[in-house]
Amino acid sequence: MKNYSKFYGFLLAGAFCCTGSAAFAQDDDQSSDKGWINASFETNSVFYRKDAKSDLLNMAYPKDHVASNNYLKFDYTKGRFSTGFQLESYLPVLAGYPTELKGTKLTNLYAQWADRDFTVTGGTFYDQFGSGLLFRSYEERMLGFNNALLGARATYSYKGMVNVKALWGTPRFGMTYDTGTQVRGGDLSLSIGDMCGWNNTSLFVEGSVLNTFMEVSDQTAERMNPNRMGYSGRINFETGGFTAKLEYVDNGVNYYSDVKLPDPESFLRERGNAQLIEVGYNDRGLGIFVSARRLAWMKSEIIFNNSSTLNMLNYVPAMSLQHTYMLATLNPFIPQLGQISLSGPNVMGEIGGQADIYYTFRKGSTLGGKRGLKVHANFATYYSLEEGMGKMKARNLTYRDFTLDFEKWFTRKFKLTMFYSMQENNHSYGLSAATDLEHILVADMIYKFNTDYSLRWELQYLFGDKNSKTRDWMAALVEFNVAPKWSIYASDMYNHGHKDEDLRIHYYDAGISFAQSHTRLQLSYGRHRAGYVCSGGVCRMQPAYTGFNFAMTMTF
Question: Under a CB-based contact definition with an 8 Å cutoff, are residues 464 and 506 in contact?
Fold first, then answer.
């Protein structure tokens, strides 16, 4: 009962705070002297149940049968001053989330002064340099990830031409900032376009420097340097519909435990580095985006030699199409940052890229017809890196995806989206050449009865080659919406082609959601498959489970 008392107390506190903020906001309409308050409360809870497949699938089934992730966020702004906090409560944390998240704690607290040209922040804050390859501090609740810095930051801008940033702090790990790690860095951005008075062209030259100090034992410090220096240089160019970005990152020297070395207590010493090129064009219904990236030993840790998914100071997104259809997300692309293999070659990193093309056939054209036609194609391919001095040679394919989809309103009431994806995955992450090839087909249809009522349904099929571990799947979803408040859905995924007949299992799910004003409620029940949950290329492993899911979000 202790956990339940905490949970209800937390809900009450959230409701009280949000109600108070709403009243404050009403008063503020009459007088802006009081400032502005924004608050939000979010809860995600699961009641776990056992079913006939629980033992076979090794489903998560906590002793308490109930888990809940809760967040209360509060921000106050008056003129140039702002302050806020975040309270988090895990009662306990949902299965599959990092186990370092436990209990109830005030995790974020900040105060900031923002003038026209400069800002000063004290307390906790989020920031990043460039694309985040060198450094990024951010929160992603879907992953349970939060590496906010506790310290100070100052920024200064001179007429938008020169922008300077300096920060210092200790990063969050789990529920604490007591990690013994210190992060110090600076960032400089020069707007050459503004300096030269260019009207239709922008050119930014940017650079960053980052120092990270890890607190380690005296014995460990004898074998490694706890100070790491990293650098990055960037060029961003834009004119008309054309954009180009180039970034080079030197992440400094990283250390990895390596049982293959003569001294088992020694470390593999590798300098992390990355190169990123992005080129895009967008004009008259045509959009083309091409990117290429190479990574080598790019994992930047908060705590030395800790394997937690929370142990990241930088951000390396999966530069491939982020799928949303059920069967297309079974085997997502996970970037390889460099890791030690217990036997055989190490996974040093990856090299590859993607090309994304959009085109809209206008209304009245031959293919566009009466209502137009949207076509989209994406191709992404990545390889592991060959070991050696240059580290630029590709070794084995790790991931490949070709996707083609089109979207068309055939009438004012009916829209059809057809989707095809060919995915090739290497489950050894490039240590061997073996891959699985899968083809996914999706028909996504929407029918609008009127402005309030609509029906959406999906039919999906996945078939794999003889080496595929997940061949073959079928899936369906139906969703009925009553705008703008109600939505009801039911879905099922069935692994009907699995080589093991006992593992030909239905993964069903059904739910209802309600939204009004600033509140959204959702309740669902289903059997969920084990697999990776990803956001922006950062992933965590989610165990299989069956149960009720409840989610609530309130914003004010």
Answer: no
> Containing H/E element for 7?
helix 2-30
Domains plus CATH for the chain? 318-535 (2.40.160)
In 3-state terms the chain splits into helix, strand, coil percentages (rounded to 5) of: 10, 55, 35
Backbone angles phi, psi at 229, to 5 degrees: -110, 130
| Residue 104 CA: distances (Å) to CA of 6, 15, 48, 189 | 9, 17, 21, 39
Flag whether the pTM goes above 0.70. yes
Q: Which of 38-47, 236-245, 328-337 has the lowest mean pLDDT?
A: 328-337
CA–chain centroid gap for 76, Å, is: 27
Please state, in angstroms and rounded to a whole number, the distance separating the CA atoms of residues 391 and 350: 10
Do 146 and 107 form a contact (C-beta atoms < 8 A)?
yes
Residue 346 predicted with pLDDT over 80: no
Q: How many helices (H) and strands (E) does the chain have?
A: 3, 30
Distances (CA, A) of 68 to 17, 39, 55, 102: 20, 20, 23, 10
Measured distance CA(103)–CA(91) in Å, rounded? 6
Residues 364 and 373: their CA atoms lie apart, in Å, by 10
363: its two tokens: 């209304």
Secondary structure class of 396 (helix, strand, coil): strand
d(CA 546, CA 525): 8
